[in-house]
Amino acid sequence: MDQLIRPIGVVHSDIKQSRDMPLQGVPAVIEIYGEFLEGLRGTEEDTHINVIGWFDRAERGPLVVTPRKIRKINPKLGKRGVFSLRSPVRPNPLSLSVTRLLRVETPLLYVEALDLIDASPIIDIKPYSAGWDAVFWARDKHSCLVAQDAVSEEAFAALTREAYNFHGERCAATAAAARIVYDAAIELESDLRDLTLELPRNADPHLVDSLIGTTRATPGNARLSICGDTREVIISSLGRSISYRLLDILDWDPTRILSSPPETLFERVG
């Protein structure tokens, strides 16, 4: 039976074509139609929302596709079924995005990042709930892409976002953690979720948060420990270890950290 779906609003974005949309999305504005404005009551109290949109210009027929955006991270990734991807190509082209709600100026919702192009219909908005929506220990395909011929710029963007989502602040430490974890995953040929961290007791707390966010290492899963008052971050996997001594970069701009050669960021012993 066909179901009737009524859009509740529309996206305003600087991105007009799907091919131009960055993997991490872009800032956008959601305009809610007048007949649905009462449904926004209380939304301004939330910091994050789930946005359900409609890829109205996407193909609906193919069930197996080559994931274009994920291939930017790993060019060797082959075809996959659409239900294992977040591709817009699917039988019912719904999108699901968790995004930070910057402010509400009824009928407009300003959001930090959204991967829906301009004029895309909005189907629904639900509050983000950490108790329901956050599964910190979950694994997905992305976690093993870094060690498989990853394109560094796309991997850095994804890792920085993971660090930010856990830490709650975009800072030099989120960028530094992305560079360290990327380097370790490549050198150790390891899935991010298999890396074990030994952190110095006096480590920068922003860096600690960011390393946890990118690797999901915790004391409870036996992948995070404190190793004393040394300056090194020790990352291990499958019996191999690399020690990282971060140089004085935590007052740098994150963009500079993400674009600089490794030898300007840390000393490595492994």
Provide an overview of this structure:
The N and C termini lie far apart (60 Å). This protein has a six-stranded antiparallel beta barrel. The protein has helices at residues 68-73, 130-133, 152-167, 172-188, 205-215, 254-259, and strands at residues 9-12, 26-32, 48-54, 64-65, 80-81, 94-105, 108-114, 121-127, 196-199, 224-226, 232-237, 240-246, 266-269. A hairpin with a 2-residue loop joins strand 11 and strand 12 (240-246). Helix 3 (152-167) crosses helix 4. The chain is an alpha+beta fold. It has six helices and 13 strands. It is 22% helix and 27% strand.
In summary, what is this structure?
This protein is α+β, with helices and mostly antiparallel strands and 270 residues long. It contains six helices and 13 strands.
Identify the strand order in the major beta sheet.
Answer: 1-2-7-6-3-8
| Rg, alpha carbons | 20 Å
Which structural class best describes the helix and strand composition? Answer: alpha+beta
Number of helices: 6
- The number of E-state strands comes to 13
CATH architecture of the largest domain: 2-Layer Sandwich
Distance between termini? Answer: 60 Å
Mean pLDDT: 90
Strand count, sense and closure of the main sheet?
A: 6 strands, antiparallel, barrel
Q: Percent of residues in beta strands? A: 25-35%
CATH level-3 fold name of the largest domain: 60s Ribosomal Protein L30, Chain: A
- What number of structural domains do the residues give? 2
Low-confidence stretches: none
Q: Describe the global form.
A: globular
Q: What series of H and E elements makes up the topology? A: EEEEHEEEEHHHEHEEEHE
Fraction of residues in H or I helices: 10-25%
CATH class of the largest domain: Alpha Beta
